[in-house]
Design goal:
Distance between the termini of chain B: 55 Å
Radius of gyration of chain B: 21 Å
CATH topology of chain B: Rossmann fold
Number of helices of chain B: 6
Strand content of chain A: 25-35%
Strand order of the largest sheet of chain A: 7-11-6-1-4-5-12
CATH class of chain B: Alpha Beta
Oligomer: heterodimer
CATH architecture of chain B: 3-Layer(aba) Sandwich
Number of domains of chain A: 2
Shape of chain B: globular
Largest sheet of chain A: 7 strands, parallel
Number of strands of chain A: 18
Number of helices of chain A: 8
Helix content of chain B: 25-40%
CATH topology of the largest domain in chain A: Rossmann fold
Shape of chain A: globular
Number of strands of chain B: 13
CATH superfamily of chain B: HUPs
């Protein structure tokens, strides 16, 4: 009860989403600092696969599944009600969500139900003088805000790709429990229903969660030329997504879902390859937390080279296909 | 259709962030403020819905300092009918406190739709819309990029990782808008002139401190100076070697 942390996980089609390991890892970090245990919570229609039985290795002491037929897909009202009730009953000190599309929708609802503050999209968590503290990028990453959450429970959502999952060699197997929620938290057949998820083309990764991003800008000259970036992304064997600058999204070359920058997504991949992107301040703000940045641009004075770890000055139409070949060699 | 749109005054996206002497806030000297870009989609959507219905009212509500009157005038110039400023000295860091103030104003207003931008580009809080929905016990869909409304039922599409979620909801409802929903109009000169005469009600408002305390606003860590590996395709093998052996990311 004292100092317990709840990690709220996500499943899709009955399989745990990968970001869930990051949530458990962040929750464990808070749990250690608060001196409490970590419960992992997942809502589903039934048993959840995708590694739910291995969460102990990432630091979960217990895995709890709240089940109801209406929980097969994200049900905003049923989920938020059931989670808020679980948190109240469990007396948790902190609740950790993923700052995913679902987590960012769900966490504010739970916070309002509990009447406690929420820090979304945090990149660091800690405990100072017994209070949970977080760091979160503001102004699209042009500054970092350090906050103290004075209320209990403290609600936070973790930016994807920042909390690298840590497997603990000595960790035990987590206990597991399934709890049926009568009436689906009152949200089954409620006022808001997710009718379906129209899947993106198979294998398409979201830029917000991809470990590698190959991003293109005006330098690509026309929409069809993004094909060479898709080929480069493909060479990474399913680990890379294609991103885009605001200029090309505004021009209608690429969907908004792919936009990186202040009015798009703020991303933190392991590797960000900026191709034909000059590096407007609002774009740099969206990707400067990438671990490694590579820039390919024909203008040696482009601002993108100021934030890039490695740069190649040259014609992207020569450089990118060569890079694709070299990456394929590594993976072949 | 009666629609409320909650908007926010934010620093322009091209702003270079300078931290104020208190170490906790933005130095606003010389900063240009704009209507939050995501709120433009909300204003535009409200205007289109009213135009389609042929009747109704679009009310713009902002929580903010006196200067946010200017932001409200921008929305009025786009075509909104009237504005309400909930005037505070400073917007609280805790989004729940902002949500409480907005919910108190919106409660009992008889709105069919309450629209928000999906987030503000300054604090990135990403929470006030759904919190207001919870406080008013209204259905809510966030980050809406496509919207159809038929009587008291609506269907919204929102982007999720690897796909698009199709969400059905009932009205009245709270929606937050994403880029892609529509193409916001620019205020025409006629609209700007008309906006000056539209009603704008300023209400001094008290907001709670909330449970979030700002400890510090800090510059992001500087990135180490990078290096130009070389020119053209000939530099690619060296780049790949560096990514493998030095950066260890491949």
């Amino acid at each position: 009860m004292s100092g317990g942390v709840l990690a709220v996980l996500e499943q899709r089609d009955g399989a745990l989403r990968k970001v869930s390991h990051e949530v458990v890892t962040g929750a464990r970090r808070l749990g250690d600092a608060l001196g409490g245990t970590v419960d992992a919570l997942v809502l589903a229609a039934g048993a959840v696969g995708g590694g739910a039985d291995q969460l102990g290795a990432f630091g979960a002491d217990k895995v709890i599944t709240l089940t109801h037929a209406a929980f097969a897909r994200y049900a905003p009202e049923g989920y938020s009600r059931a989670i808020a009730e679980h948190v109240r009953a469990g007396g948790y000190r902190a609740v950790v969500f993923a700052a995913s599309a679902t987590g960012k929708d769900l966490a504010p609802r739970v916070a309002a139900r509990l009447g406690v503050p929420l820090a979304q999209d945090v990149t660091d968590v800690g405990v100072e003088s017994g209070a949970v503290t977080v760091v979160r990028p503001v102004y699209a990453g042009k500054a970092l805000l350090k906050l103290k959450l004075a209320a209990s429970p403290a609600l936070v959502s973790l930016r994807p790709n920042v909390f690298t999952p840590v497997q603990r060699p000595k960790a035990g197997v987590a206990q597991s429990a399934a709890v049926d929620v009568p009436g689906g938290g009152g949200g089954g057949g409620g006022r808001v229903t997710v009718r379906e998820i129209k899947a993106a083309p198979a294998g398409a990764l979201d830029v917000a969660e991809a470990p590698i991003i190959v991003s293109g800008g005006r330098g690509l000259k026309e929409p069809a030329n993004f094909k060479i970036l898709e080929e480069l992304a493909g060479a990474f064997g399913g680990a890379a997504a294609v991103g885009a600058s605001r200029a090309v999204v505004d021009a209608g070359w690429r969907p908004h879902a792919d936009q990186v920058g202040q009015t798009g997504k703020t991303v933190s991949p392991t590797l960000y390859i900026a191709v034909g992107i000059s590096g407007a301040i609002q774009h740099l703000a969206g990707m400067r937390t990438a671990k490694v940045i590579v820039a390919i641009n024909k203008d040696k004075d482009a601002p993108i080279f100021k934030v890039a770890d490695y740069g190649i000055v040259g014609d992207l139409f020569d450089v990118v296909p060569k890079l694709t070949d070299e990456i394929r060699k590594l993976h072949g | 259709m009666k629609i409320a749109v909650c908007i926010k005054r934010v620093p322009d996206s091209e702003t270079r962030v300078k931290i104020a002497a208190d170490g906790k806030s933005l130095d606003e000297a010389g900063v240009k403020f704009i209507l939050n870009p995501y709120d433009e989609f909300a204003v535009e959507e409200a205007l289109r819905r009213k135009e389609q219905a042929g009747t109704g009212e679009v009310v713009v509500v902002a929580l903010g300092p006196a200067a946010a009157q200017e932001t409200i005038r921008t929305a009025l110039a786009m075509g909104a009918d009237r504005g309400v400023l909930l005037q505070v000295d400073r917007i609280p860091a805790d989004g729940l406190e902002a949500a409480k103030a907005l919910a108190a104003e919106l409660k009992g207003g008889g709105y069919d739709l309450i629209l928000f931008g999906k987030m503000a580009i300054d604090d990135y809080n990403h929470q006030v819309g759904p919190m207001v929905a919870e406080l008013l016990d209204l259905p809510c869909v966030t980050t809406v990029a496509h919207l159809e409304i038929d009587g008291a039922r609506g269907t919204a599409e929102r982007e999720v990782e690897g796909g698009v979620e199709v969400v059905e909801f009932t009205l009245p409802a709270v929606l937050t808008t994403d880029k892609g929903l529509n193409e916001p109009r620019y205020p025409a000169l006629k609209g700007i002139m008309a906006a000056k005469k539209k009603p704008l009600d300023t209400k001094p408002t008290r907001v709670g401190q909330g449970g979030l305390e700002i400890l510090a606003l800090m510059p992001p860590p500087e990135r180490k100076d990078g290096k130009i590996v070389g020119e053209g395709a000939a530099a690619v093998p060296e780049l790949v070697r560096l990514l493998r052996e030095e950066a260890k990311v491949l």
